[in-house]
Design brief:
Helix content: 55-70%
Largest sheet: none
Number of domains: 1
Length: 72
Protein backbone atom coordinates (compact mmCIF):
# COMPACT_ATOMS: atom_id res chain seq x y z
CA UNK A 1 0.00 0.00 0.00
CA UNK A 2 1.28 3.44 -0.92
CA UNK A 3 1.36 6.17 1.66
CA UNK A 4 0.84 9.91 1.14
CA UNK A 5 4.60 10.55 1.00
CA UNK A 6 5.04 8.08 -1.86
CA UNK A 7 2.11 9.59 -3.75
CA UNK A 8 3.59 13.08 -3.38
CA UNK A 9 6.98 11.83 -4.58
CA UNK A 10 5.35 10.15 -7.58
CA UNK A 11 3.47 13.38 -8.38
CA UNK A 12 6.70 15.40 -8.15
CA UNK A 13 8.51 12.95 -10.42
CA UNK A 14 5.67 13.00 -12.96
CA UNK A 15 5.71 16.81 -12.99
CA UNK A 16 9.49 16.89 -13.53
CA UNK A 17 9.19 14.38 -16.37
CA UNK A 18 6.46 16.47 -17.99
CA UNK A 19 8.60 19.60 -17.74
CA UNK A 20 11.62 17.86 -19.27
CA UNK A 21 9.49 16.49 -22.10
CA UNK A 22 8.15 19.98 -22.77
CA UNK A 23 11.70 21.33 -22.92
CA UNK A 24 12.85 18.45 -25.11
CA UNK A 25 10.17 19.30 -27.64
CA UNK A 26 11.59 22.79 -27.92
CA UNK A 27 15.28 21.91 -28.24
CA UNK A 28 16.85 18.64 -27.09
CA UNK A 29 20.30 20.25 -26.89
CA UNK A 30 18.95 22.75 -24.37
CA UNK A 31 17.48 19.94 -22.28
CA UNK A 32 20.78 18.09 -22.36
CA UNK A 33 22.55 21.22 -21.11
CA UNK A 34 20.00 21.79 -18.34
CA UNK A 35 20.24 18.17 -17.20
CA UNK A 36 24.05 18.35 -17.23
CA UNK A 37 23.98 21.50 -15.09
CA UNK A 38 21.50 19.95 -12.64
CA UNK A 39 23.56 16.78 -12.32
CA UNK A 40 26.73 18.79 -11.76
CA UNK A 41 25.01 20.83 -9.04
CA UNK A 42 23.63 17.69 -7.38
CA UNK A 43 27.08 16.11 -7.50
CA UNK A 44 28.62 19.17 -5.82
CA UNK A 45 25.91 19.10 -3.16
CA UNK A 46 26.61 15.40 -2.58
CA UNK A 47 30.33 16.01 -2.20
CA UNK A 48 31.14 14.25 -5.47
CA UNK A 49 29.28 11.06 -4.57
CA UNK A 50 26.68 11.27 -7.36
CA UNK A 51 29.19 10.72 -10.14
CA UNK A 52 29.84 7.23 -8.77
CA UNK A 53 26.32 6.26 -9.85
CA UNK A 54 26.21 7.83 -13.31
CA UNK A 55 27.22 6.21 -16.59
CA UNK A 56 30.47 7.54 -18.02
CA UNK A 57 28.84 9.34 -20.95
CA UNK A 58 26.54 11.27 -18.62
CA UNK A 59 29.42 12.13 -16.25
CA UNK A 60 31.40 13.53 -19.16
CA UNK A 61 28.41 15.53 -20.48
CA UNK A 62 27.99 17.03 -17.02
CA UNK A 63 31.71 17.82 -16.82
CA UNK A 64 32.14 15.52 -13.82
CA UNK A 65 35.04 13.50 -15.18
CA UNK A 66 35.68 9.89 -14.26
CA UNK A 67 34.25 8.27 -11.15
CA UNK A 68 36.73 7.72 -8.31
CA UNK A 69 36.42 3.96 -8.69
CA UNK A 70 37.48 4.30 -12.37
CA UNK A 71 40.61 6.25 -11.45
CA UNK A 72 43.89 4.45 -10.79
Amino acid sequence: MRGPDQAATDDDAAELIAQLRELAGADPADVRQVVAEVLAALDRAAGGALREHLPEAIRLDAGLGPAASARS
